[in-house]
């Protein structure tokens, strides 16, 4: 499968790290939809070594990502390609301390090594690049850490759920989310909510568990939904079976990744922050 070409402005290709960084900032501004705010705060630093990008560091601290589904199409389609030069991003680092995703502060540190691409020049006098998928002969190594505050996560879930229920005429009056660690790769979830629709008010409880084994298979189980109110329990009965069946399943995380990308470890730490770490390679 051919990857889309991404434009970097007039040819020839950038000859300095500062030039490449400036072009990446322009591309990012074009690619950002209306739901992205504060992109001018992002910092980009790159170093070139011939056709390779020896280092690229993206600092997204202060950038906010909303829920807008609109994503501008910034792909480039020259009438003809006049030059193709392979290159590699030897080291890519992404930092955000934090960025904001739908009002939730998210702290991110991620690094990847060995990302292949091609410099492309077109007959229209423009230059761009084509990302290449990794494969077994050209694997990608790296690691990532993502952390969100527990209180912020509960507040975000409350807001999203309240909006979703409101469209059905249901008011969410209270919500409590408990996430408990059951080991380095396992956690339990309990959600207690109070809802109101017309004269009917009731408490609803949902529970689930998740764990990842040594083969990097995610198992989601113990999914249950219940209510002490018999009327609400009866209404839940219509969907309980489908929800519990959909939730109790296994996902092979390693198999879901493309060739050349191997998930070697994943960890979950639960405290005042929910921290997920992963290692590739």
Folded structure, characterized:
The protein has about 280 residues and is of the alpha+beta class. Helix content is about 20%, strand content about 50%. The chain has four helices and 18 strands. The protein has helices at about 15-30, 150-165, 230-245, 255, and strands at about 5-10, 35, 45-50, 50-60, 65, 80-90, 90-100, 105-115, 115-120, 125-130, 140-150, 170-180, 185-195, 200-210, 215-225, 250, 265-270, 275-280. Strands 2, 3, 4, 5, 7, 8, 11, 17 and 18 form a nine-stranded mixed sheet that branches. The longest helix has 18 residues, at about 230-245. It is elongated, with a radius of gyration of 23 Å. This is DUF2993 domain-containing protein.
Write the layout of secondary structure elements.
Blueprint: E1 6-10, H1 17-31, E2 36-37, E3 43-49, E4 52-59, E5 64-65, E6 81-89, E7 92-101, E8 104-113, E9 115-122, E10 126-131, E11 141-149, H2 150-166, E12 171-181, E13 186-197, E14 200-212, E15 217-227, H3 230-247, E16 249-252, H4 253-256, E17 263-270, E18 273-280
Parallel strand pairs: 4-7, 5-7
Antiparallel strand pairs: 1-10, 2-5, 3-4, 6-9, 7-8, 8-11, 9-10, 11-18, 12-13, 13-14, 14-15, 15-16, 17-18
- Which structural class should the secondary elements be placed in? alpha+beta
* Overall 3D form: elongated
User: What is the count of DSSP helices, taking H or I runs of 4+ residues?
Assistant: 4
Give the ordered list of helices and strands: EHEEEEEEEEEEHEEEEHEHEE
Biggest pleated-sheet summary: 9 strands, mixed
Low-confidence stretches: none
Mean pLDDT: 88
Distance between the termini: 23 Å
The radius of gyration computed from the alpha-carbon positions, rounded to a whole number of angstroms, is 23 Å
Tell me what portion of residues adopts beta-strand conformation. over 45%
């Amino acid at each position: 499968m051919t990857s889309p070409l991404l434009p970097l402005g007039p040819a020839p290709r950038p000859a300095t790290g500062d030039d490449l960084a400036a072009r990446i900032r322009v591309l990012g501004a074009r690619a950002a939809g209306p739901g992205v705010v504060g992109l001018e705060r992002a910092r980009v630093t790159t170093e070139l070594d011939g056709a390779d990008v020896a280092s690229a560091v993206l600092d997204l601290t202060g950038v906010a990502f909303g829920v807008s589904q609109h994503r501008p199409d910034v792909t480039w389609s020259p009438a003809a390609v006049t030059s193709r030069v392979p290159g590699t991003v030897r080291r890519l680092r992404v930092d955000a301390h934090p960025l904001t995703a739908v009002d939730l502060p998210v702290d991110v540190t991620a690094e990847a090594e060995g990302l292949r691409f091609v410099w492309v020049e077109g007959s229209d006098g423009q230059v761009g690049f084509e990302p290449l998928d990794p494969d077994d002969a050209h694997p990608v190594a790296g690691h990532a850490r993502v952390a969100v505050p527990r209180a912020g996560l509960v507040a975000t879930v409350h807001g999203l759920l309240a909006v979703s229920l409101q469209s059905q005429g249901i008011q969410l009056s209270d919500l409590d989310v408990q996430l408990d660690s059951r080991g380095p790769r396992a956690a339990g979830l309990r959600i207690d909510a109070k809802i109101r629709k017309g004269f009917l008010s009731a408490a609803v409880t949902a529970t689930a568990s998740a764990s990842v084994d040594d083969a990097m298979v995610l198992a989601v189980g113990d999914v249950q939904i219940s209510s002490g109110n018999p009327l609400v329990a009866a209404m839940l009965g219509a969907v309980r079976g489908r929800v519990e069946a959909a939730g109790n399943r296994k996902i092979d995380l390693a198999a879901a990744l493309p060739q050349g990308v191997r998930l070697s470890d994943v960890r979950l730490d639960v405290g005042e922050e929910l921290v997920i770490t992963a290692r590739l390679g």
